[in-house]
Design goal:
It contains 1 helix and 10 strands. With 111 residues, it is mostly beta strands. The strands form 3 sheets. The chain has a 5-stranded antiparallel β-sheet, with no helix packed on it. Strands 1-2-5 form a 3-stranded antiparallel β-sheet, with no helix packed on it.
Length: 111
Amino acid sequence: MKTYTGSCHCEAVTFTFSADITEAIECNCSHCAMKGLVLTFIPQSNVTIASGEDKLTTYLFNKRHINHTFCAVCGVQPFGIADDTMAINLRCLKDFDMTAVTINQFDGKSL
């Protein structure tokens, strides 16, 4: 397993986790598509929010099941939370090679 570090754009929110990331999804729902999110899923217990938890704001829509969490300062969404799983936005990881993972298309628009 590799340890990853990520943040929002202004770095008010920072986080770390360990995982083997080989795949991710690119969802076509209105929210993910507009933001350009590329997501991988990690158990929430594996993620440590190192700073800025007080800067996080949540947006809920549709079935209101996923907490789309974003930085109240810069507006970037480093992750979302549903149940005990975090959807990590790979675009927010430091020194992450997006070409090293398989990105699968997910039809969230049809849900």
